[in-house]
Amino acid sequence: MTEEMQLHVEGMSCGHCVKAVESSVGAIDGVETVRVTLDQGLVEVTYDPRQASVEDMKAVIEEEGYTVK
Predict the structure, then answer these.
(1) Quick one: three-class SS letters along 2-38?
(2) Which of 24, 45, 52, 68 is least enclosed by beta carbons within 10 angstroms?
């Protein structure tokens, strides 16, 4: 069973930012897909809540230097 969620992220401005967020969130066990919409500052994630948590996702995004709203 998977869930979908959106996070609003500030500070992303280029392709490098997209790649950094997609790869760090995508490396979390239980995350199936990650899609960044740069112009809207959105990160859409499909994940298994039994394996991954929203807190895990926020933590890795903030470790990359971005702000999760």
Answers:
(1) CEEEEEEEECCCCHHHHHHHHHHHHCCCCEEEEEEEH
(2) 68
pLDDT in tens, 21-56: 999 999 999 999 999 999 999 999 999 999 999 999
Report the C-alpha gap between 9 and 40 in whole angstroms.
9
Tokens standing for residue 14: 């280029």
In degrees and rounded to multiples of 5, residue 38 shows phi and psi of -60, -50
- What is the pairing mode between strands 42-47 and 67-68? unpaired
Give the C-alpha separation, 28 to 32, whole Å: 9
